[in-house]
Amino acid sequence: MVYVTDGSFEGILTAVFEAFRNKEEPEEITLGGDFQLPLGTDVREIPVDAEKSDRVWRGVQSKISQQSLEDLYKAYLSEHPRVGLYIYRYIRLGLNLGRKVEEYLQHPDVQAIHDLSRRVGKEVHLFLGILRFKKLKNGVFYACYEPDNNITQLITDHFARRLADQAWIIHDRKRNIFALYNGEEVIFTSELPDLDHLACEEEYEELWKRYFATIAIEIRKNPKLQRSFMPYRYWKHLVEKQP
Amino acid sequence: MKLLDKLQILADSAKYDVSCSSSGSNRSNRPGGVGNASLPGICHSWSDDGRCISLLKILFTNVCIYDCKYCINRSSNDIRRASFTPDELCELTIQFYRRNYIEGLFLSSAVIRNPDYTMELMIKALKKLRHEYRFNGYIHLKSIPGADMRLIHEAGLLADRMSINIELPSTASLKLLAPQKDPISILEPMSFVRERIMESRELVLYKKPQSFVPAGQTTQLIVGATQDSDLKILNLTEHLYRRYQLKRVYYSAYVPINDDQNLPSINTSPPLLREHRIYQADWLLRFYGFRADELLDEGHPSFDTHLDPKCDWALRHLDQFPVEINKAPMEMLLRVPGIGYRMAARIIRARRLGPLTFEDLKRMRVVLKRARYFITCNGRYSGGVDLDAGLLYPLLSDKANKKVMAGQISMFG
pTM value? Predict the structure, then answer.
């Protein structure tokens, strides 16, 4: 049986609820309707249900742990095609083991969630460093990026704390998600146009590029090492890596 | 002079200082301010040499009265000289910070006129940055040897981290290469800062805490400019961690810039592999419970460049292996080559839920390339070779240096 969800976290939790209620083990829990299956596979549409997903949410919190809930959510943000199934399996195991499940790393179901959640966590940490803002003509600071994982909501608090006195926008161009900060709160929307062209050519970008070029020690050059920390696919939005 | 030129000159002069860490501070933003420190530190970019860029690492001025032979800024060198104004420096820091290029500022300086005067200039700039520009991000300040303690105290109230570079690992080397500096002028401020840090933590109990160098102090040693052995460097390191409670000791493979009869020739390439081994040993001292005299001694004064220090130790102590993964205490797991701190912790947690097999370890992403020769899982040994130093050496040594080079300075914490 394949469960088809709307792709939201609530949708997946609803599917988990249904799987328990129907006492059946789904072969797949899909993210959205865009998938391919062998002919003849049984399919069950799972409409998202706030009450059901809430019960699973609270169940994970109280019978497993808050940490597990956070790990599951982070893993979900990886958008891995099989993450729905991994979440279901983790919860199934967790309801048996309680909070110990977090440490049961030798178990494949735990390993799967742990790996994805770590992958997301790593990218979050990387982008706290390599996200770049440019100043737009209207004074707003704008950062455009294309992360592998859907991490925008995990990085905004950090920037709201440190860049508290400036208006900024973080734009995930891959997913068309905008986080807007006005000096008080962060709002999410998908209703903005691309703002890249409004950026003003800037003195500080030139200064930063010069600094970047100067600080490397020529005789120690090591491009492989550089790329291992800062993979090539991210360079597109890094000022210092533009010609 | 244009700001762009100044930036280039003063960054160029600062780049041989390897430290760039922004960790360890809990400073938080205040209403109306900009900046917030991150406890674990954040890298913002990696330069072409693969080193992390976390702070705007820059000199206040490169005009110097000293003529230290190893230093690019020595007074007798014919290079372009420049100095920032406090406003230029503050503006650069703030504007870079607002674009998320950096975690903060790492300010150092050559010695202009005299140590006190230089220190006063730096303090003035930092005060401006903290109070007028309301910057609450990270500041690492390099204190100037020979500056008055009153100034060091004042600076410590503004900075998150302070450091004073020892550079040359022995008094004899210091005499040879930096005859105008005296060792006391380096160690005295180090103990002064340590005492003030302890004091500031005690005060917390009964009055509003006064933040003094919350991220602690560090230093740097140059490797390979002098004849000092790895043993000498590591003993000094251990002493510094114990006596002065330094947060970090950094090592910088000497890059020849000046021609001098007392220095390696200008064509010598920097001893990167040696630097890498010393970093590995430094980690063993700080996190793995090793003592310096376990790793090196008079009969064995330098690291084997082909073998990491932990493997080197293990091959000389094979009687303590193999280690049973399901029983060994944390201290012993940490001594297994190839098992790091995180993996050891992961093993301890996981084995509570059931005995671990070799396959389990693989699934847990434990890297077994080296570890397999030194462990058993439920009594089973999967190394496939007798525990014999002669047989293991070729299996554990780095065949090509390339791989090691790619891994170096991955530890920027």
Answer: 0.91
